[in-house]
Design brief:
It comes from Agromyces allii. It contains 20 helices and 20 strands. The protein has helices spanning 3-12, 33-45, 58-66, 81-86, 102-110, 117-123, 142-155, 170-174, 189-193, 218-221, 224-232, 249-257, 305-308, 316-331, 336-343, 373-380, 400-405, 420-430, 444-458, 480-495, and strands at 25-29, 48-53, 70-73, 90-93, 114-115, 132-137, 160-164, 182-186, 207-210, 241-245, 265-269, 278-282, 285-288, 300-304, 354-359, 362-366, 386-390, 410-415, 436-438, 464-467.
């Protein structure tokens, strides 16, 4: 037996926290939140760990040294001699490392398996108790749906944790000493790309959903088909319910083509009247026609749109997220009455259609989390008349269709970001009568102050000034939250007559590739 075959056989046996991980040589790529959690976990398991990253936060480096993890600061566009000498038996890469990264290509040519943090977490999920997993992906709405599902499960007395791409590594949840009954795992397309759908590392979730699919991160995946194929992995091996979006045919096809466990059901959700085995809306009432015996002739009432409106949850795309989350937790046995009561206490995250201020009849809304055209479209549809602050890093996505679709609701547009020319050209082609203001500032500290000033100069009573960038934030900001905070700061300063700049605190950017796809 070759050394590679022997190593592969050992890895196949590593499907429990209580398996023998001792001495396993593992190369960890990335030193952000995920990479640190991977290295910490493997060290606790007794593996021999080398962490490689272009840069490493000093505090994390000190902790890694204390727990016995070797740290290699080195550009990752080539294979360092130290990595080759280490001869890893396994590589665990943080989300976002592109498949053509030099170290991943080297691992492939050397026959060294490459895992992501999600596969590792699944294999060691039984440290405290093996919780059920519910998986959530989609181009937009992942975080809201993940948080909703975890909230609804907790309201039913279950220990539930939202984790994954939402910001809390799954490995941290798995190692929580209190244990959980259910993990609601938000998965990016990067994380799904790395997942196997069969074999020892394949996930077997209780329920799963792909909320929607629109072109995004094509520069990373290479094509729309490759992006969709990554998203489709969310349904593999699902045990109880594959939840899909009736308004998005791609998600229906994903479910139809998925290899699931016997007895798993396809559950549709949408804003229209639900059929049997669906969730939907009838005369303003959110309904479940899936999890009841007489689903062919009746439905269960969950909540009304009128009840959701005061909580800021009445926008159509948020209602869709609520239906999806309800379907997921109904698969886990949560009663509709519990869902109704819990929704009365739920609030959206910051920077997700968040009203910042209402002044002079003008509403100022922060939807900085609308980082692609699909998300921005959902946000635009929630308001009848908009001054639209848009732009950033477009990631190769075409914006013509988005601009053309919303000409009728635009009072004006304020264009920010490094990819301004594509947006300005799109407005010239499809919305030539809409006033367009271009913020050409390169200084992060002045972008939002100028954007808000332009918006205030043209907004009228009844308008909504909407930050829905349809683009990533990393061209000028640390992340979407930094962009949103700076917008909110600029709005409040302007309305209070203090608009002399746009300095807002921000979180330092992680040094591992962005995972939010």
């Amino acid at each position: 037996m070759s050394e590679a075959d022997a190593a592969g056989g050992r890895l196949d046996s590593l499907t429990s926290w209580h398996a023998d991980w001792s001495g396993l040589r593992v190369l960890v790529l990335g030193a952000g939140v995920t990479g640190f959690a991977v290295a910490d976990t493997l060290s606790e398991l007794g593996a021999e760990v080398l962490l490689a990253a272009t840069s490493v936060d000093d505090d994390r480096a000190r902790i890694l040294d204390v727990i016995g993890v070797r740290v290699l600061r080195h550009p990752l566009d080539a294979v360092p001699d130290e990595v080759a000498a280490f001869a890893p038996e396994l590589v665990v890469a943080s989300p976002g490392f592109h498949p053509d990264n030099a170290l991943l290509e080297w691992a492939g040519s050397a026959g060294v398996p490459v895992w992501g943090d999600i596969e590792l977490a699944w294999r060691v999920r039984d440290k405290v108790n093996a919780a059920d997993w519910i998986l959530v992906t989609g181009t937009n709405g992942k975080t809201t749906t993940t948080q909703l599902a975890a909230t609804l499960l907790a309201a039913n007395g279950l220990r539930a944790a939202p984790c994954g791409n939402i910001g809390v590594p799954v490995l941290d949840a798995v190692r929580d000493p209190g244990g959980f009954d259910v993990l609601v795992v938000e998965l990016s397309s990067y994380q799904l790309h790395a997942l196997p759908i069969e074999g020892a590392g394949a996930l077997h979730p209780l329920a799963s959903v792909c909320l929607n699919v629109a072109d995004d991160h094509l520069d990373w995946h290479g094509s729309a088909d490759a992006y969709r194929a990554a998203k489709a992995k969310v349904y593999a091996n699902t045990r109880i319910a594959c939840v899909y979006n009736r308004a998005d045919e791609a998600t229906r096809r994903m479910v139809e083509e998925a290899d699931v466990e016997d007895g798993a059901r396809a559950i549709g959700f949408g804003l229209d009247t639900p059929g049997p085995s669906d969730f939907g809306v009838v005369e303003g009432i959110l309904c479940d026609r899936a999890f009841l015996d007489d689903r062919h002739s009746s439905a269960l009432e969950i909540i009304t749109v009128d009840e959701l409106e005061p909580r800021g949850l009445g926008a159509p795309h948020i209602v869709a997220n609520i239906l999806a989350a309800s379907a997921l937790v109904r698969a886990a046995g949560v009663p509709v009455g519990v869902i109704h009561d819990a929704l009365g206490e739920f609030s959206l995250d910051a920077h997700r259609i968040q009203t910042v201020a209402v002044s002079g009849g003008i509403r100022w809304v922060d939807d900085s989390k609308a980082t692609n055209p699909h998300a921005a479209e959902a946000s635009l549809r929630a308001y009848p008349r908009v001054v639209w602050i848009v732009g950033g890093l477009l990631k190769g996505v075409d914006v013509d269709g988005l601009v053309a679709a919303h000409v009728g609701r635009l009072r004006a547009a304020v264009v920010i970001g490094v990819d301004r020319s594509a947006l300005v050209d799109a407005f010239a082609r499809h919305a030539s009568d809409v006033p367009v203001f271009e913020v050409d500032a390169d200084d992060t500290g002045t972008v939002m102050a100028r954007a808000v000033a332009f918006a205030e100069s043209i907004a009228e009573d009844g308008d909504t000034v909407l930050l829905a960038p349809a683009a990533a934030s990393m061209d000028q900001f640390a992340d979407y939250a930094d962009r949103g905070r700076r917008f909110q700061h600029a709005v409040r300063a302007r309305l209070e007559g203090e608009a002399d700049g746009d300095s807002a605190p921000h979180d330092p950017a992680s040094n591992e590739p962005d995972a939010r796809a």
